[in-house]
Design brief:
Elements (H helix, E strand, L loop, with lengths): L3 H11 L7 H7 L4 E5 L2 E4 L4 E4 L2 H4 L8 H13 L12 H13 L6 E5 L2 H18 L7 E5 L8 H6 L3 H5 L8 E4 L4 H4 L5 H19 L4 E6 L15 H11 L3 E4 L14 H5 L5 E4 L11 E5 L1 H9 L13 H16 L2 H18 L7 E7 L2 E6 L14 H11 L2 E2 L1 E3 L2 E4 L7 H22 L1
Parallel strand pairs: 3-13, 5-6, 5-7, 7-8
Antiparallel strand pairs: 1-2, 2-3, 4-10, 9-10, 11-12, 12-15, 14-15
Helix pairs in contact: 4-14, 5-14, 6-13, 10-11, 15-17, 16-17
Bound molecules: pyridoxal-5'-phosphate.
Length: 449
C-alpha cells in the first residue's frame, strides 16, 4: 500500500496490458490490485472491493484457497514440468482427464489439454477439420459461429467469435468461418414475442448450413449463454430448435463452456443445464478457478474414436496439460465436490441472487434485469418502454467507474452491466452487491437527469 504512483509509473513506462484503452489508461493510471481473499479484492490504496466478476468469470471457488497453493507446491517439488509430446504422460494429467470424464456429459470421456480458452478454440478448429479429413470428407471445413459471440483473442478464437471491433483490427475472420445472428431478444427482438424470436434466430443456422452447402460445413460453435457479449440468455425456444437442426445435418456441435463450465449455471456445464449433447466442449477458467492458466477440449467418444484412427494430430502446446496446472485443477474439482458448491448454487445461491438482482428492474435507468445461475445483466436505457439508449455518453462505463469507486466490480458491455461473482458468495455478500449496484445506478442517474 502507498506505492500506487510508483506502480502506475512502471505501467506507463513498460507495460502494454490486454484489452485496455491505452490513451485513457495513460491519462488516469491503472488500478493496482494487490491481494484477495474470499470474494474480496484489495487495491494499493487499501480499498476493499467486492469482485462481482470473479476475476474474468473464473475464480469459482473464491480467492485465498490454501488447498490450491499446497497442490501447486507439492507438484512443483515432485515434477514441476514435463511435456506430453511424442507419446509421454505424467500422473496429474491422467488423473485430471479421468476426473473430468466423470463430471462431463454422458459419452464425453476424452480430453485434450491446452493453456487457455483461446488455445482451446484454436484446438477445436483444427480438430474438427482433422476429424473430417480422417473420415474422408476433407471438404468439410466451414465452421459457423455467432455475431457477438466470444471465443478468445487468438486469430482462430477471434475469427470464430463475432466481435466486430476485433475483426476490424487485423483483417479477421480467417477464411472458412461464417456467422449467424445472436438470440439477443432485449436488444434486437423489438416487439416480437421472445419465443418466436428464439425460433427465428435458431432457424438462421439451418439457412446458413444450406447457403454454405451441407457438404462443406464442419461444425457450429456457440456459448450456452453468451458471456462477454453481455450475458445473453437465449429464449427457452432457442436451444431445442438448434438441437433439432443439428440432428438433421451431419455437422459437429461445439459448446464453448469456458464461462458456463464448472458450476456457473448450477450444473457442471451449461450443456447440462440446457440438455445439449455437444461433440466438443472447450473449457478453461473455472477448471482451475483461475489460480493457474489451463484449458482443454472435452471430446465425445465417437469423435475421439475417429481421431484415434487418424495417426498423428500435428497440434499441441508446450504447456498442454502442465503438471502444476493439472494438480491445481484436480484439487479445484475436489473442492467443488467436497463442499457441494454447485448443488448449493443450484438450490440456494443462484435463486437468492436472481431474486435480489431482479429487484433492480424498478430503477429508472434499468430496462431489464436478467440472469441465470450465477450470471446477471442490467440493460441501461433512457426510455424503458421503447428501450431507447442514451446517446453521446458512455453510461455503462460511467456506472462501472462508480462501482469501482464504491467497492464493487461490475463489467460494462456498452450500456449493459454484467456480473459473474464467485460461486461461494454468501447471501449477505449478495445483499452488499445489490445495494452497491443500486447506489451506483443512483449516482449514474444523477449525472444524466
Ligand atoms: N471462450 C469464452 C466463452 C470466453 O468467455 C473466453 C474468455 O473470456 C474465451 C473463450 C477465451 O479464453 P482465454 O481468455 O483463456 O483465452
Amino acid at each position: 500500500e502507498g506505492n500506487t504512483q510508483h506502480w502506475q509509473a512502471l505501467g506507463r513506462r513498460h507495460h502494454l496490458p490486454p484489452f485496455s484503452d491505452y490513451k485513457a489508461l495513460n491519462a488516469k493510471g491503472s488500478r493496482i490490485i494487490t491481494r484477495a481473499e474470499g470474494v474480496y479484492l484489495w487495491d494499493s490504496a487499501g480499498n476493499r472491493i467486492l469482485d462481482g466478476m470473479a476475476g474474468l468469470w473464473c475464480v469459482n471457488v473464491g480467492y485465498g484457497r490454501e488447498e490450491l497453493v499446497q497442490a501447486a507446491a507439492r507438484q512443483m517439488r515432485e515434477l514441476p514440468y514435463y511435456n506430453l509430446f511424442f507419446q509421454t504422460a505424467h500422473p496429474p494429467v491422467l488423473e485430471l482427464a479421468e476426473a473430468i470424464a466423470e463430471i462431463a456429459p454422458a459419452g464425453m470421456t476424452h480430453v485434450f489439454f491446452t493453456g487457455s480458452g483461446s488455445e482451446s478454440n484454436d484446438t477445436v478448429l483444427r480438430m474438427v477439420r482433422h476429424y473430417w479429413a480422417v473420415k474422408g470428407q476433407p471438404q468439410k471445413q466451414v465452421i459457423i459461429g455467432r455475431w457477438n459471440g466470444y471465443h478468445g483473442s487468438t486469430v482462430a478464437g477471434a475469427s470464430l467469435g463475432g466481435m466486430k471491433a476485433m475483426h476490424g483490427q487485423g483483417g479477421l475472420p480467417i477464411p472458412g468461418i461464417e456467422h449467424i445472428d445472436q438470440p439477443y431478444w432485449y436488444g434486437e427482438g423489438g416487439d416480437e414475442d421472445p419465443e418466436a424470436f428464439g425460433v427465428r434466430m435458431a432457424e438462421q443456422l439451418e439457412q446458413k448450413i444450406l447457403q454454405v452447402g451441407v457438404e462443406k460445413v464442419a461444425a457450429f460453435i456457440a456459448e450456452p449463454i453468451q458471456g462477454a457479449g453481455g450475458v445473453i440468455i437465449p429464449p427457452d425456444s432457442y436451444w431445442p430448435k438448434i438441437h433439432e437442426i443439428l440432428a438433421r445435418y451431419d455437422i459437429l456441435f461445439i459448446a464453448d463452456e469456458v464461462i458456463c463450465g464448472f458450476g456457473r449455471t448450477g450444473e457442471w456445464f451449461g450443456s447440462d443445464y440446457y440438455g445439449s449433447a455437444p461433440d466438443l466442449m472447450p473449457i478453461a477458467k473455472g477448471l482451475t478457478s483461475g489460480y493457474v492458466p489451463m484449458g482443454g477440449v472435452i471430446v465425445r467418444d465417437e469423435v475421439a474414436a475417429v481421431l484415434n484412427e487418424g495417426g498423428e494430430f500435428f497440434h499441441g502446446f508446450t504447456y498442454s496439460g502442465h503438471p502444476v496446472a493439472a494438480a491445481v485443477a484436480l484439487e479445484n474439482l475436489r473442492i467443488l465436490k467436497r463442499e457441494g458448491i454447485i448443488d448449493r448454487v443450484r438450490t440456494h445461491t443462484a435463486p437468492y441472487l436472481q431474486r435480489r438482482w431482479r429487484e433492480l428492474a424498478d430503477h429508472p435507468l434499468v430496462g431489464e434485469a436478467r440472469g441465470l445461475g450465477m450470471l446477471g445483466a442490467l440493460e441501461l436505457v433512457k426510455d424503458k418502454r421503447t428501450r431507447t439508449r442514451f446517446s453521446g455518453i458512455e453510461l455503462g462505463m460511467r456506472c462501472r467507474e462508480h462501482c469501482l469507486d464504491n467497492g464493487l466490480v461490475m463489467r460494462a458491455v456498452g450500456d449493459t452491466l454484467i456480473i459473474s461473482p464467485p460461486l461461494v458468495i454468501s447471501e449477505a455478500q449478495i445483499d452488499e452487491l445489490v445495494s452497491k449496484a443500486r447506489l451506483c445506478l443512483d449516482l449514474t442517474a444523477g449525472e444524466v437527469e
